[in-house]
Amino acid sequence: MLSGKHILIGIGGGIAVYRVAELARLLIKQGAIVRCVMTSAACEFVTPMTFEALTGETVHTELFNLTAERQMGHIQLARWADILLVAPTTANLIAKFSHGICDNLLTTLFQVCEAPVLLASAMNVSMWESTTTQRNVKALKAQGIHFTGPEPGQLACGEEGPGRMSEPETLMEAMRPLLQPQRLSGQRWLINAGPTWESWDDVRILTNRASGKLGASMADAVAALGAETILVAGPGTPPTSTLVQRHNIGSAQEMLTACEQEAGSTAVFVATAAVSDYRFSEPEEGKLKRKDKARITVTLDANEDIVAHIAGLPNRPRKIIAFAAEHSNHIEHARNKLRAKSADAIFANDISGMGENDAAGWWVTPKQEEQLSRMPKQQLAVRLIEQIMGMD
Question: Are 104 and 203 found together in one domain?
């Protein structure tokens, strides 16, 4: 989602400057094009050469030396940006932004920038909590300016409290929804992901090879599009954006309970999870000791079908998307499950993608069949979301 985006970073004068260098590196790694503007105070902490080496772009520091040509260089730089991120944003910068003071390149860019603006606040806790700063923050938020942080913790001055700049990964997550149209704003999506664990005893489990990668990627992408996103995540499901409301569960019963609790007023339920079909009838306490037998017999009970259960609720989601991992006859099995589960669509993915970074499969609805070729799961997540959004 950051690939090809024009990220303009305004760097304020604070000890957190060194963490902005890591942020710039991560953005470049994601394929973003990054340019930096530094205040004179920021240059006291880190030299412009650091950011030039990281971004491969000239770092701008002076309002009147931005270009050699006779043009409003700061205007052109503001128009180039898809987003302006100011990090760290000091109390001094917040005050200048709020009152329209344009005494350096960064404050001038702020005033003319029509792209979304995200301020990563970082300062002494007393400065952040001061009446003046809070009044300025309130005024900027009323103008549509976005904030992240400050985060609580120990500060460079030795004090503790809200004052730390948000982590680079957090800043990247905060930027994503500002870089694309919020096409799912006002919608509520429920997604489940990963395997479940069915305990035989306190050590051994019955599970499968599902990784949760596709479901986690879908949750991140949906949240970035503005939807209220709830992820019910089985064991091992990868970390997700801070925009995602996440419930970590273990067993199939726990997943069913969590999904049922969250299903109300949900626009879409996407069931990517590989839920165990069976659980042990009589799980043991402690660790079951090995017996001197060549074979033992255990009894399994069927778990309830989560998709069919959610589809049968009086307040069922408007769209229910099921997933089915199949070895062969994918479309035939998908159509049978589509009817049995009362789902609106089903993605029949080949079991060869289970646990891998890539996957392929067939998108099947009562009126449509479409094969999706093998691709990275992050890319597949976006394709599937487009399919869901395009449903009648």
Answer: no
Report H helices in 176-240.
213-224
Read off the pTM.
0.72
CA 177 to mean position of chain CA atoms: 9
From the candidates 36, 43, 102, 157, give the one annotated as an active-site residue: 157
* Three-state secondary structure call for residue 279: strand
Tens-place pLDDT, residues 180-217: 778 898 999 999 999 999 999 999 999 999 999 999 99
* Nearest-angstrom CA–CA distance, 174 and 25: 17
165 and 226 inside one domain: no
Query: In degrees rounded to 5, what are phi and psi of residue 188?
Result: -120, 120
Whether 103 and 209 share a structural domain: no
Nearest to 270 by CA among 391, 181, 358, 384: 384
H helices present in the chain, as ranges: 17-29, 48-55, 73-80, 91-99, 105-112, 125-129, 131-142, 168-175, 213-224, 252-262, 306-311, 330-341, 377-389
Q: Is 62 helix (H, G, I), strand (E, B) or coil?
A: coil
Torsion angles phi and psi, residue 201, rounded to 5: -140, -165
- Quick one: 271 and 318 in the same domain? yes
Distances in Å between the Cα of 271 and the Cα atoms of 115, 215, 237 are 36, 8, 14
Quick check: is 36 catalytic?
Answer: no
What burial letters (b/e) apply to 107-124, b meaning 16+ CB within 10 Å?
A: bbbbeebebbbbbbbbbb
